[in-house]
Design goal:
Elements lengths: L19 H16 L14 E13 L2 E3 L9 E11 L6 E7 L2 E2 L5 E9 L5 E9 L2 E2 L13 E8 L7 E10 L5 E10 L7 E6 L4 E12 L1
Antiparallel strand pairs: 1-13, 2-12, 3-9, 3-13, 4-5, 4-8, 4-12, 6-7, 6-11, 9-10, 10-11
Length: 219
């Protein structure tokens, strides 16, 4: 194990020469700290932080993707990974709703703003609403051919707290003409109630296939 050498202030003041002993200590001390050498200052431990996989929904012609009782006081935020989520119906959008004990908020209290860029001539589009019944995160018409699927991440911030719940996302999709689109946006559910559940769904029709994986982030 590398030895830790305490460097006195008198060795590093403006009048002190730079010598071999000083340079050796400056080289070796960080290594000694990492190895936990005797006398070396320790690094503060990060306690309680984690990124945990909580649940997986694998779909085959399902009306929606529900995660019941997924939110709790155990985590600060939740990340949902959408993997090859394919609609059964052509030309649809995808959204989510929040709820408690299986009862979802379906009144027009979701705000969302989404920016989409697609590869067809660099076309750009914005989708937004100040009051709607679900948070829409693909404002491009998603197709349902072989490779026309939804992929990406949605992050829900502290939904179990008794306050408005914000979210943000990075979502990619292929539209009904197999044109790639990147969606970046966010939303706010204007309900101060504590939420325990989330449901993902297409605007029309079932989820034909794909997975949605839930992760909990503890700071």
């Amino acid at each position: 194990m590398t030895s830790y050498v305490t460097i006195p202030n008198t060795d590093i003041d403006a009048e002190s020469p730079i010598d071999v002993d000083l340079m050796t200590a400056l080289r070796d001390n960080p290594i000694a700290m990492g190895e936990g050498a005797v006398g070396a200052p320790g690094f503060a431990a990060v306690t309680g932080a984690s990124f945990d996989r909580l649940a997986v929904n694998t779909h085959s012609s399902d009306a929606s993707s529900e995660f019941l009782s997924i939110f709790s006081a155990d985590y600060d935020e939740y990340w949902f990974h959408l993997s090859k989520v394919k609609p059964a119906t052509d030309i649809v959008s995808m959204s989510y709703q929040l709820g408690t004990s299986g009862v979802y908020i379906t009144t027009a209290i979701y705000q969302y703003a989404n920016h989409r860029v697609e590869t067809s001539a660099g076309a750009e589009n914005t989708g937004f609403s100040a009051a709607t019944t679900a948070a829409v995160f693909t404002n491009d018409p998603v197709g349902n051919s072989v490779d026309e699927v939804v992929e990406g991440w949605i992050r829900i911030h502290d939904p179990f707290a008794a306050s408005y719940t914000q979210a943000d996302w990075d979502i990619s999709s292929l539209n009904n003409n197999t044109v790639y689109a990147l969606n970046n946006g966010g939303s706010c559910c204007d309900s101060a109630a504590s939420k325990t559940d989330i449901k993902f769904l297409f605007s029309v029709g079932n989820i034909a296939s794909g997975e949605i994986i839930a992760y909990g982030v503890k700071k």
